[in-house]
Amino acid sequence: MTRFLKRGAAFIALALAVALPLPLWAADAPRVPLFELTDSLEADCFWDPLSGILKITQGGHCVDLRMGSPVALFDYASAELVDPPETQSLKPIVTAALADRLRLFFSTLPPPATYKVGAILIDPGHGGKDPGAIGTYSSGGKTKTVREKDIVLTVAKTLYESLKRRYPDKKVLLTRHDDSYPTLEDRVDMANGVKTGPSEAILYVSIHANAAFNAASSGFEVWYLSPDYRRTVIDAAEGDSSDILPILNSMMEEEFTTESILIAKSISESLEAEIGSKSRNRGIKEESWFVVRNAKMPSVLIELGFVSNPGEAKL
Fold it and tell me: Which of 117, 162, 126 is nearest to 270 (CA)?
């Protein structure tokens, strides 16, 4: 909460900026393709066409924009009125004035604050009395059965050991280590109860296997929470301003959504690189699953493949 409250001044400024008259600029003012600009700045640019979210990052610093919005948030420390980003030929563009502001910002930066992922919670779905999806395949003339709860536990424990070896300084946690059944509420409570430092973040990764009536359905997919779903990610604490909290919550929610989409994209691309020749990539998708909508952190849900497909069940 301390990390969030330190940003209070930025969100007050944001609220004031929204209430001020919009800036005026000429309709025929020159525009700059945003991706060309960020390439020249050696910055990364994330754009979600559905939500209109734009996030530009470089060296630990960031600028948050939204398509059609006259507000820019710089490093969560200051909000300014700017010319709203637009689209041209289905790609984002900005006015020359906004391009100059972005160049100035990224060229005069102090060393960034150090933020890092402090904890990763791996959640193998189902377990115990809940087997999840069940599939069969033939091998050596015998029919064998596979259960989702067993597949995801094996994958989760392998992932757990790999992350512990690679990142010994981080908290790597499992919601279950055996054939037990934590409820959905138990899993979310565990995630939201993990303690991290003021400059640390936690990631929530839920692992499942898919099933469908059509036995030919195949492939893996990664899900994140729909940007249209409204949730509370910051709890009110004593002394919090009721005016600031909704603004703070809205911006943190957008940040979590953006980070979740980036994580989903990264996992999807990595899975494709590793197993794309054996299982097709069904892409990243959005849905308000219970665990991802109630975890107050960036979160994704992975469907490894279809146990209802005999070929994938065998794999």
Answer: 162
Q: Which residues contact 131 (CB under 8 A, 6 or more apart)?
A: 147, 148, 149
Secondary structure class of 68 (helix, strand, coil): coil
Per the structure block, which two tokens stand in for 253? 């929610």
Angle at 166 between CA 191 and CA 266, to 5 degrees: 65
CB of 191 closer than 8 Å to CB of 202: yes
Q: Residue holding tokens 């146990």?
A: 307
DSSP per residue, 209-229? EE--SSTT---EEEEE--TT-
Q: What is the mean pLDDT of each run of 10 residues along the chain (315 residues)?
A: 43 46 57 94 90 87 90 83 91 94 89 77 95 94 96 97 93 96 92 85 92 94 76 50 54 74 93 94 85 79 95 94
Q: Provide the strand spans (E) within the chain.
A: 31-33, 44-48, 53-58, 61-66, 71-74, 78-81, 86-88, 91-95, 116-124, 134-139, 142-147, 171-174, 200-210, 220-224, 281-286, 299-306
Rounded (5°) CA angle 160-163-166: 150
Question: What is the distance between the alpha carbons of residues 246 and 174, in angstroms, rounded to a whole number?
Answer: 32
Under 8 Å between Cβ of 29 and 82: no
Query: What is the pTM (predicted TM-score) of this model?
Result: 0.66
Secondary structure letter of residue 296 according to DSSP: S
Contact between 131 and 148 under an 8 Å Cβ cutoff? The reply is: yes
